[in-house]
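Moderator note: this is an archived Q&A kept for reference. The question asked for a predicted structure of one protein chain; the sequence and the answer are reproduced below.
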Amino acid sequence: MKNSTMNKKILLTICIIVGVILLALAFYIGTYFSPNLSSGGNIMSVVESINSPVISTITAYGTVQKIQGQTITLSADGDTRDIQIQEGSTVSILITQTSGQTSLTGPKQSTANFSMIKVGDKLNIQVKLLPTGELSGTGIIILPASFTK
């Protein structure tokens, strides 16, 4: 009877030791392989890269959901972003060939006004990523309704 009790105690002790070792191993693996997001090092590196003088702009594409002051809300493929447009940003409209035209000159860009942008329009907005993570629009192209990405 004493041997049976002794064997149970030894088995329980071994199980506890193995459990502690597995827990410590899981903690080590979790901290070793997880990205270090708390320092923001990787994120700041990306922001710095995108703000490089080599990368003049990034293009945001989508359908206008809302216009509030100088902020345009774009959506595409289930994602929505607010973009603050800088004062004095260029606005252009892309004019495509109509069915009645016979010349094959291709699409042309014409100067437009910010007030011409309406909810439902498709836009390309040239943006810069600010150090705060916000997007700042520097130029807008109003695309034809028939435009697809």
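Archived answer notes: The longest strand covers residues 79-95.
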